Amino acid sequence: MKAAKKSQYVAAVDLGAESGRVVLCRWDGAEGTLTEVHRFPNTPHHEGGHLVWDPEHLWQEIRQGLSRAASQAGGDIASVAVDGWGVDYVLVDRSGDILGRAYCYRDARNLPQMERAYSLLPRQRIYEITGIQFLPFNTIYQLMAHVAEFPDEWARAAFWLNLPEYFQYRLSGVAAAEYTEASTTQLLDVHTRSWSQELAPAVGLGLEKFPPLVEPGTRLGKVRGAVAQEVGLPAAEVIAPACHDTGSAVAGIPFSPEQLAFISSGTWSLVGTVLLEPVVSEQGLELNYTNEGGVAGSVRFLKNVIGLWLLQECLREWKAQGMQLTAADLARQCADISASGPAFDADETAFLAPGNMVARINAALEAQGFPKEERPVELAAIIFRSLARRYAQVLKEIQSLTGKSLARVAIVGGGVRNQTLNRLTGELTGLEVLRGPSEATAAGNVAVQIGTLENATSLSDIRAISAKLQLAGS
User: Fold this and answer.
1) Are the beta carbons of 331 and 421 closer than 8 angstroms?
2) What single string gives the DSSP state of each residue in 9-22?
3) How far apart are CA 183 and CA 26, in angstroms?
4) CA 449, CA 12: separation in Å to the nearest integer?
5) pLDDT digits (tens, 9 = 90+) for 43-60
6) 25, 318, 389, 433 - which has most CB atoms within 10 Å?
7) Closest Cα to residue 450, out of 81, 71, 182?
8) Closest by alpha carbon to 235, among 66, 68, 79?
9) What distance in Å separates the CA atoms of residue 408 and residue 183, rounded to the nearest whole number?
10) Active site residue 245
């Protein structure tokens, strides 16, 4: 009789721009159970005239979460991996310390550098090289802004890393840029899958400070001594997952990619489909679509749509006014709204910055000829309707740009619980809505780790592992 396979544990650190979490997975070779062992807030703050993150706070929370995971697993964790949002970075000196600040992508410093980049290399050429959508917070413009304001910090930097890669560096001692995360920087050549030899020098960024690229599933080495001892992980490896959180979320979708679109629904909505080759065309440039890296050599062809950030910011305002409201309550209260009615363009750059969101939405409504709306339930309904309309427009464009026929859309992330938004999405897109996991990012992170440990690293392998993962208690 064949002995039962011993269970093993892996830990996923998932960093979001609103909150972070550490998830422990118990995997027995046939199925896995995901348990959230630590959750913590993450908000930027103003410092020196800029909006910045606190990496040391995040590092402290990561260590605390890994300690809890190690305790629950009896110290027997095989691997750990970190994913997070894209584009934001830190400069690191030769001693491994951060130089300067870790700027938030919502900081106002980036837009002038975006315009400056076009004067150094034509916009069309940048897109031909990278296949990446033009957003003012892409890492290329952030680094240009850093060099312009603090050239001495750039001169003293040994290398730069995007944030999830930085925390993997803190864990392993290995500085490496993971492919899916690197693809969001708009500094990667989409055709050669390497740092662009043309683009970086053209905008004044020396390639000698660019970290080496690795693929999802790369083993970076053991958790280094002092950290391993502190958190109780004496034998754990650090594995690079799809470090970009959407890359992990898409890897965590358990459905066949045939005729499938996805919406990773949270603070941002990432609306797209999985391809095997990039689509870089004049129409893609005109409509500002992006070819981001995926697991196993795949491409996430998508568009960033401002997501539930709109409601999150309104909720902050209403809370300051003494209203006790939640997104879930508002979604329930407007569950029967029609797909027709007042709406606004949900992708205006005016919505990027925090603060005064109710007033900005009302200005957008008035621009469309609709009256102002101050009532929370009614305004939430307008937000959901506006987002669903934008999803429908984007998915129609994706079919035109890629030639891929879409019949279904998988919704993953926190927005999967918003039945009102999901119903409107189905009605307005005409596609079958499939509810994926709310913790798809953690599931994809875990699936890449397990695939690496078991030498099962194809796209179908990762998807099959994802399908065998479930949240504890579900």
Assistant:
1) yes
2) EEEEEEE-SSEEEE
3) 31
4) 9
5) 999 999 999 999 999 999
6) 25
7) 81
8) 79
9) 26
10) yes
H or E stretch at 157: none
With the C-alpha atoms ordered 380, 383, 387, 393, is the resulting torsion angle positive or negative? Answer: positive
For residues 371 and 357, give the distance between their C-alpha atoms in angstroms, rounded to a whole number. Answer: 16
Q: Is 456 left (phi over 0), alpha (psi -120 to 50) or beta?
A: beta
Alpha carbons 427 and 404: distance in angstroms, whole number:
20
- The pLDDT score that the predictor gives to residue 414 is 86
Contacts (Cβ under 8 Å, ≥6 apart) of 383: 310, 311, 314, 346, 361
The residue to which tokens 């925390």 are assigned: 167
Average pLDDT, the chain: 95
What would the two tokens of residue 297 be? 């050599």
CB distance 59 to 170 below 8 Å: yes
Q: Which of 94, 93, 103 has the alpha carbon at shortest distance from 144?
A: 103
Are 9 and 26 within 8 A, CB to CB? yes
* Residues of the chain scoring pLDDT < 50: 1-4
| Residue 190 half-sphere exposure toward CB, CA atoms < 13 A | 27
Rounded CA separation 290/273 (Å): 11
For the chain, where do the domains classified as CATH 3.30.420.40 start and end? 8-246+440-471, 255-436
Topology of the domain comprising 255-436: Nucleotidyltransferase; domain 5 (3.30.420)
Say what the alpha-carbon torsion angle 442, 296, 247, 24 is, to the nearest 10 degrees: 10
Task: Give the whole-angstrom CA distance, residue 447 versus residue 19.
Answer: 21
pLDDT at 3: 42
Q: Which of 14, 83, 107, 245 is catalytic?
A: 245
Closest of 229, 258, 253 to residue 242, by C-alpha: 253
| Closest CA relative to residue 260, chosen from 412, 118, 91, 114 | 412
Long-range CB pairs of 275-283 (<8 Å, 24+ gap) are 275/299, 275/300, 275/301, 275/402, 275/404, 278/131, 278/190, 278/191, 279/131, 279/401, 279/402, 280/127, 280/128, 280/131, 280/190, 281/401, 283/400, 283/401
pLDDT digits (tens, 9 = 90+) for 284-310: 999 999 999 999 999 999 999 999 999
Q: Is 455 helix (H, G, I), strand (E, B) or coil?
A: coil
Q: Token pair for residue 437?
A: 């996991």
Place of tokens 């750039």: 154
Q: What is the pLDDT of residue 474?
A: 62
d(CA 421, CA 381): 9
Q: Mention every residue, 6+ apart, whose C-beta is less than 8 A from residue 174.
A: 168, 220, 221, 238
Return d(Cα 462, Cα 296) in angstroms, integer: 9
**Separation of alpha carbons 429 and 421, rounded Å:** 12
Tell me the CATH class for 8-246+440-471.
Answer: alpha beta
- At 471, is the secondary structure helix, strand, or coil? strand
Kind plus residue range of the DSSP H or E element containing 49? none
